[in-house]
Amino acid sequence: MKDDPFKIQEGSVKDSRLKGFSKSRHSGDYVDFAWAKSAQTIGKFFADEKVNRLFFILLILLGILWGRGFYLQITKGESFRSVAEGNRLREELIVSNRGLIYDRFGNLLVKNVSHFFLYLSPRNLPEEINDREKLFVKLEELLDINIEEIKEEINNNSKRDNVLIYENIPYEEAMQLILLSETNQELSVSYEPRRQYFDYLGLAHVIGYLGDVTEDDLGQDEYTHNDRIGKTGLELKYENILRGQDGLRQIEVDALNREKNIIAWKEPIDGNDLFLTLDAKAQSKLHEIMTDNARKYDKPKMAAVVLDANDGGVLAMMSLPVYDNNIFTSSLNREDYNKIITDPTTPLLNRTINGTYPYGSVFKPIVAAAALEEEIINSSFTVNSTGGVQIGNSFFPDWRASGHGKTNIKWALADSVNTFFYTIGGGNNQWLEEGLGINKIIKYAKKFGLGQITGIDLISEADGFLPSKNWKEKTLDERWYLGDTYNLSIGQGYLLGTPIQTAVFMSYFATGQAYQPHFIKSTKSAIENQGYKSKLVLENLLDNDNLNIIRAGLRETVKTGTATSLQSVAVDVAGKTGTAQFNRNKTPHSWFTGFAPYDDPQIVITVLVEEGGDRGLAVTVARQFMEWYFER
Asked: In whole numbers, what is the pLDDT of the chain averaged over residues?
C-alpha cells in the first residue's frame, strides 16, 4: 500500500468522525422513523397567528414611515425648503431717504443725516446664559448703556426679528460693533438716515416730528417695527408723500452667517420732497422777535401767523414756547420728554391753530360789517360815548373811563369804542331801539368762518366756539340776557376762536376774499412736480361800499387810533387791536390783526400774547416784524 499509491485501502477506517459508517448505505436513502415512537410532531417554526400579527405590525410601520415622508416632503416641503433657504440667505432692508422739506425759495427746512444703528435679533441670542451675559457686558462697555435696559427691550420685543438697541452710534464704536457682529450673528449694525431739524426757525409745531410705529400703524400699511412715522405737524399730514419705499438686499451666507454673495438687490425709492409756502427768513425773524419780546416782558406764551393775502399761503407761523423736535429723532429720552409734558407753559401746544381764546375787540369788524349789511346803521350813524352804558343794575364800560365822544363806525373801529358796539349789537333806547341781536351776530360770525376749522393742512385744528341761547339754557341752566349780547358784541363772553381763524377773516377785509390757509406749495418726485391750487373760502360776504367802510376804519386804527405805533412801518398798515378778558384774576390777552400795504395788501398778520395786557405787546411784535419785512 505504501509502495502502490493507486491501491485502494480496504477495511476499517481509523477516523472517529466516521464511526458507524456503513458502505452498504446510500446517503439520502435512509430515514430513521424511530421518532414516530415518541410524542413529538412535525410543525412550523412560527404559528400562523404570529406571522399574521408580525405582518400587520410591519404594514403599520411602513404606513407611518410613508405618512411621515409625505408630510415632510409634500405637505411641509415648501415650508422646510424656505427655512433651509433662509438659513442660507439673509435679507437686509436698505432704508430709503425720507423726502426733504423746502421753503418757497428752495431753502432747506429739514434734512436727513445718516447715523449708525445697532440691532439685536432675540431669536439668534446664545442659548447659554453665560454667553448672553458676556455679550451684554461687551455692549455695555462699548456703548455705556444699561444691561437691564437691553434685557427689558429684548423681552418686550421677543417676537421681532430685530430690535433696535442703540441709535446714533459714534464712528469709532460703530467700527468695533461691526467687528463684533462678525462673530455674533445676533448683532447687526446699519447706516440709516434720520431727521435733523433746524431749531433757529422755531418750526417744531409746523414741521412736527417722527416717532416709532404702533401696532395700528403696522396693520394699516407696510411698516416694520423699526420704521419711523410722522406723529405731528406736516410730517404726519404728508406722511404718504414724504415716506419712501425701502429697498432689499438678499445675501448668501455660510454656516457662520458670514456674507458670501449678493443674490438679489431691490433699489430703495426715496420719498417725495415738499415745497412749502413758508419764507424761511421771515420765519426766522418772527421767531427772533417773539422770543426776544417774550424774554423782555416775561410773556412766554404767544402765537403769530403771517399769511399771503392773495392766496392764503402761510409765510410764517410761530407758537411760544417752542420745543426742540430733535429729541424725537432718536430713541425717546424719557427725562427730556417728561420735562416737556410737565412744563406748565405747555410747549407742545400749537397756540396758532389749537389755542382757543376770547376774541376781544378783533371781533368788532365782523359786528360792524353785519350792522351795515343788515342796514341797521350806515356810515353816518353815531353814538355819544361818555364812558359806558347803564342797563338796570349793570354797567357796561368803555375802555376809556371818560368816554370817546361822538363816534361813527370808523372811529368806533379805530379807537375800539365799546359803547358803539353795545348799541349796534344789542340796541340802546338812546340811539338805536333794536340792535342785531345774538342770532344775527352768530349768523355773520359763521359767514366769516368762525366756529369751524379753517382747513389748514395741520392735524387737530380747533374750531372755537359760538354761543347760542339754547346752548346757555341747556348747559348753564340760565336764559340769555341783554348783557350777554353786549358782551358778545365786543368779542367777550362765551365766544372763543383761534389766531388762524382771525387771520382768515382779516384776509377778507384786506382783499374782499379769503383763501384756505395752507403750507403746501408743491411736491416734487423723481418723475414730476405737482403744484397746489389755492382754495377760495370767503367771498361776496359784503357789499363793496360796506367793505370799504370797514377797511377805512381799520386804516384809521393805525392813523389815529389804538395802533399808531405802526406808522413806523415803511408801508401803510391797517388793522385792529384787541384786549380780551378771560379771568378776572388774570391779565387779559393782547391781540393784533391787520394787513399791509393798505392799497395793495400782500400780507396778513395776526399776533396773540397770552396775558399780554393792554400795553400793546401784540402790536409791538407785529410792528417789529413788518418793519423788517417791508425794508429787507
From this structure: 87
Q: What are phi and psi of 337, to 5 degrees?
A: -65, -40
pLDDT band at 24 (very low <50, low <70, confident <90, very high): low
Residue 21: per-residue pLDDT: 52
Residue 33 has pLDDT above 50, yes or no: no
Give domain status of residue 44, yes or no: no
Classify residue 74 by its DSSP letter: I
Using DSSP, how many helices (H) and how many strands (E) does the chain show? Answer: 20, 23
- Residues 264, 385, single domain; the answer is no
Alpha helices in 208-361 (DSSP H): 215-220, 233-237, 239-242, 280-297, 334-341
158 CB neighbour count, 10 Å cutoff: 11
Q: Which residue has the cell 412535525?
A: 42
Residue 447 and residue 552 share a domain:
yes
Residue 57 lies in a domain: no
Helices (H), 43-109: 48-70, 77-88
Q: Which of 543, 607, 540, 598 is nearest to 573 (CA)?
A: 598
Q: How far apart are CA 511 and CA 595, in angstroms?
A: 9
Residue 214: count other Cβ atoms within 10 Å of its Cβ: 13
Report the alpha-carbon distance of residue 195 to residue 269 in Å, rounded: 17
Q: Where are the beta strands (DSSP E) in 104-208?
A: 108-120, 163-169, 187-197
22-32 CB burial, b ≥16 within 10 A, e <16: eeeeeeeeeee
Looking at the structure, tell me whether residues 383 and 514 fall in a common domain: yes
State whether 329 and 410 are in the same domain.
yes
pLDDT above 90 (res 379) = yes
3-state secondary structure of 78: helix
For strand 520-524 and strand 529-531, is the pairing parallel, antiparallel, or unpaired? antiparallel
The three-state secondary structure class of 461 is: coil
Same domain, 430 and 520: yes
pTM (2 d.p.): 0.81
Structure confidence at residue 212 (pLDDT): 80
Same domain? For 362 and 411 the reply is: yes
**Integer Rg of the chain from CA:** 44
Residue 15 counted as domain residue: no
Q: Give me the sign of the Cα torsion angle 131, 135, 136, 138.
A: positive
Query: Looking up cell 374750531, which residue turns up?
Result: 463
Q: Is 20 left (phi over 0), alpha (psi -120 to 50) or beta?
A: left
Position 552, amino acid: A
Query: 195 and 305: one domain?
Result: no
With 80 as the cut, is the pLDDT of residue 178 above it?
Answer: yes
Which secondary structure element, helix H or strand E, spans residue 130, and what is its range? helix 129-143
Supply the CATH number for residue 385's domain. 3.40.710.10
Query: Is residue 631 classed as helix, strand or coil in its secondary structure?
Result: coil
The DSSP string of 4-45 is -TTSPP-S----GGGTT--TTPPTTS---GGGGGSS-----S
Q: Is residue 454 part of a domain?
A: yes
Count of C-beta atoms within a 10 Å radius of residue 609: 29
* Residue at grid coordinates 429739514: 110
CB distance 89 to 222 below 8 Å: no
Domain count, the chain: 2
Contact 365, 413 (CB under 8 A): yes
Q: Is there a single domain that holds both residue 271 and residue 377? A: no
User: H or E element: which one contains 250?
Assistant: strand 247-253
In which domain, by residue range, is 156 found? 90-199+248-276
Distance CA 624, CA 632 (A): 12
**Residue matched to cell numbers 417791508:** 630
- Tell me the CATH number at 256: 3.90.1310.10
| Residue 339, amino acid | K
Q: Roughly what angle, to the nearest 10 degrees, separates helices 129-143 and 171-183?
A: 160
- For residue 410, which amino acid is it? K
